[in-house]
């Protein structure tokens, strides 16, 4: 019914639900969202609960992975992203792409973001490939630790002591355009880069790798459907186009009367917009408020934060085999085992220690197998095995 949307406009409220109760309909509205606004210095979060952006508005990146921010020039988008960093840098690893070389470049001087702020097209592309590799490494670590716990199902990253890994891409469409227009002699394969990025969107949640994309107005071809369909949390701030509202918030909000508001209670406001989980009704949102610079500034806040280091590849301990165990497994005796070992030494095998590596075990297994099933002297058999093993 259109009356619900008309009431929404009349009372400057957000219709959050419509309940049909037989003889009448109940419309549920949210009002006065500005009262839920918090200061940028108070943005905090935890891995399991997410990042609090306002009273009643939390980005739970585990339940609703990936974030899209759309905002016109001067609408408060940069302040919102920096406010996000106040929370994200305290709980995880963050990488920032700044293709405009403007809003985040100076943060590269900070230890917490050293080597994690990039702005050239090819470097950003390589970092996507690196992020995909990190995601795969995380899955390897998770499987290893899951096996150590004798689990029957693989859990989420935080169960295995891994911190979340965030990739913030400012002005995403601009970067994609530059990526697609790289010269032919570039070492970067744009197709591979976008393929790796799609895999992060599809598989990143369980491994704890999350992407934050910002743009101005969303155009038809700005966001590939694979990416957009997997971005679960969406925000707009400032003045954006009608098509942007439609694209960001989808069919669930096709009848909503989105509006651009310049003043609230007679005062000019920045960072006002809408927020929604993909597929649910959007509601009015006020991004964290930038405090007085004498009280707080982002650079000084980030400067005192500890750096969260990259995960290290799991150390795989080499399996070694005792001689008596090999003798038993090969169904032989100590005399024959030592004879073959001596012939292998003569052929150039350098045995180290009293136990044997996996490759050395394979040599013995192959020699004994051929000895039992082929004709020829031991020396001839070992010569053939050495040729096969290189």
Report on this model:
The protein is α/β, with parallel strands linked by helices. It folds into two domains: 32-303, Rossmann fold; 321-389. Helix content is 36%, strand content 18%. It contains twelve helices and 17 strands. The protein has an eight-stranded mixed beta sheet, sandwiched between helices. The protein has a three-stranded antiparallel beta sheet with strand order 3-4-5, with helices on one face. The relative contact order is 0.14. The mean pLDDT is 86. GO terms for molecular function: ATP binding; DNA binding. ATP binds at residues 71-78.
In short:
The protein folds into two domains: 272 residues, Rossmann fold (3-Layer(aba) Sandwich), CATH 3.40.50; 69 residues. It contains twelve helices and 17 strands.
Fold blueprint:
Elements lengths: L1 H9 L3 E8 L2 E7 L14 E2 L3 E5 L2 E3 L7 E5 L5 H12 L4 E5 L19 E2 L2 H28 L16 E5 L2 H9 L9 H18 L1 E7 L9 H4 L4 E5 L4 H8 L13 E2 L2 E2 L3 E6 L5 E4 L11 H6 L17 E2 H7 L4 H13 L8 E2 L1 H16 L4 H12 L1
Parallel strand pairs: 6-10, 6-11, 7-8, 7-9, 9-10
Antiparallel strand pairs: 1-2, 3-4, 4-5, 11-14, 12-13, 14-15, 16-17
Helix pairs in contact: 3-5, 11-12
